[in-house]
Request: fold
Amino acid sequence: MTTETGPEVSAGTRDGGGHQLRRPADSPDPGLVGAAFPDLTLPDSDGIPRTLSALADGDPLVLQTFRGPWCPKEQTWFRELLPLQDEADVAYTRMVSLSVDQPEVLASLRDGLGARWTFLSDAERRYVDVLGLRETTDSTHRPYAPYAFVLLPDLTVSAAWNGYWYWGRPTRQELWLALREATRRVRSDWVVPGEAGDRAS
Amino acid sequence: VTWLWLALLDPDAATTSPPALTAEVEGEARRRLVAWAPGGRPHPEAVRVAAEVVDPAGAAATVVWQWFPHGAAPLFDDPAVQQLARRLAGRDVAGVQPDALSTATRDALHYAGGLTVHRDGRPASHVLRDSWLRRVGPARVLRVGPGLLGATAPRPGPGTQRYGGQPWPATRFPT
Reply:
């Protein structure tokens, strides 16, 4: 069991010479590929502390930050994401949504949507500024801005999108292609065992 | 270790290896629920379960136990079993989250059963009534003593697939 006391987060560094994590500036933002996403620890919609790496647990991960359930853009995009969970069910892929809402608010949203993926609550805003993902134009709610990431199991960014304007968000087709690439990198048997040798011969 | 053997045995049942953990089952004529480390099948009725469900420090619990014999087990990829996995990742019919859960496998193809672990104070008959396991076949409710079954955080979804034939929700492919 993890604790609610997360690690110190440095969103601007990475071991191994990859790119620095910063706010996605474009859609997609190829400059973020290779950046290290910090291993957050936050309560889920049941109040259970969850660590991002444990949620990935060896699989590619779709991480979405969103303003809040009150935002019509988020409501629309959640309906777009819902079919993805049926595919993720069978595709060894995890999904996480992150906002500043209280766990009980996220539980209501999750149940209302019929979502089975994890919703993380950063109600204390422990990470939103450290990550540099705050919605700077909303000083009332101080929410996350809408961004989307595909992360490898070690939380390396494999793809990133800036969804500040709705059309900046990835389509399901773009997510599919990004998850194909992430899976290709993660699964050593992407080429069916024996097939590579057959091709070479 | 991502999975362990588990079986509900009579007191005089012969096993091929000593159990790692045992808990008495109340009202079952000294029957016991027994766990073994991975290895050769320790008893013909033993099934593989996710290792996270077993905990020597676990308290007594009400357990819904489902076990299909050879020849009666549905395919794990049967749509009813796949829907069961989606449902087991959440709350039961009454809206109560089990303390722990696992499906059970006997081989790489079949759903051999499963178990859910409860410590919410409901009468055993209600726990059984509200179990998703009953939607795919007969199940029974047991009162299992301490020292065998633990409590885990609910399995985060999505994900209904087994990793290399292991019992769901054990994660990560075998290396």
Q: What stands out?
A: Helices of chain A lie at 52-56, 72-90, 103-113, 172-186, 195-200.
